[in-house]
Amino acid sequence: MKVLIVSDYAAPYGGNFICSIKALADAMTQQGHSVQFYFAGQCQSLPWLSLLERYKVQFGVSLNGLRTAMGKDNIDLVYTHFCLPKTQLLTKLACRLTGRKLVQHWHNHYQKAPGAKGILINWAFAADYHIGCSKHVADTLPFAKKTVLYADNAIDFSRLEQPGDSAPAWDKKGITVLMFGFDPIRKGVDLAVQALMPIAQQKGFQLVISLSKNKDKVEALIRQLCDGEIPNWITLVPARDQVADYYRQADIFLSAAREEGLCYSPLEAGYLGCNLISSAIPGVPYESIPHCGVFASENVEQLREVLLWQKTHPLSEQEKLENRNAIVEKFEINRWVKEEISILEQLA
Fold first, then answer.
1. How many CA atoms lie within 13 A of 3 on its CB side?
2. Residue among 239, 221, 240, 216 nearest 231 (CA)
3. Which letter does DSSP use for residue 114 in this model?
4. Other C-beta atoms within 10 Å of 268: how many?
5. More confident residue, 11 or 207
6. Which of 31, 90, 139, 280 has the fewest CB atoms nearer than 10 Å to its CB?
7. What pLDDT digit, counting tens, does each position of 293-320 carry?
8. Where are the alpha helices (DSSP H) in the chain?
9. Would you tell me the crossing angle of helices 15-30 and 333-347 to the nearest 10 degrees?
10. Phi and psi (nearest 5°) for 319?
């Protein structure tokens, strides 16, 4: 089986996605399959490409380039991840012109594009087969059930064990609540700020928001909520590949998201012993974590109550171990790799 993976993933750090896709490619190669990659042009200088140096990698997605790659290398399956509409459209056209099967991986829930332009976009994302990153994502896809499968996302835990920076990632000012906020409304930055506003200074909380992009957008949102200022109990830090540095310095990890496909971060944070708080949405696997504070999505008062509870009831070492063991048992990367290969072999 020969697979071409097409992606617009262009984050400055590889994160769990690149580690996972490399683990998949490595296992497929060991089993006699062939894997190559096609990325957007802006990916050419990104440091995580070194992880894929053993594979054929092309850049600058174009219709002719895709057709040539599919034909010259006798590709059986084209597998798309994190593709923008233009790339997805070009990829589907190339598949139709060359008779290749297109498999779309859904990392988040389906959103139908509106208007006349949306007709073309929706057609582009209607692949031959679909793989959801979780059962809930798969169940909500509006395609024929026989074309939809799923494999729950997993974590490459070895990435979290690598030595990082021993220097503090931020000046600690109290009980640190860490969250990711590059997409501030979807990630619930506004909810976290509103929950902490009345209690942060009095109770000694510090909100640390890690951002891979949209810093200006996040700052504007905070100022809108906080009388035109960014309070001294809020700290913005840039995203980093060694994310374990952040988890180790945090006291509480907060996932306040309104929507997720299957969220990595609470699993990573729980693996490293953070106290955990999550919104009760299908895309966050809080039910798989024995000790995790939960609040109803968008319920600011309930989130505040859980924050205050966790401040005075931190996890014991035994509870941290129980969380870690449960997370590893269900979300270990080798399980995902086996499921993915089985699905792709079935579709080829």
1. 26
2. 221
3. P
4. 24
5. 207
6. 31
7. 999 999 999 999 999 999 999 999 999 9
8. 15-30, 63-72, 85-98, 115-125, 135-139, 184-187, 189-196, 200-203, 215-225, 244-249, 265-271, 300-312, 317-331, 333-347
9. 60
10. -65, -40
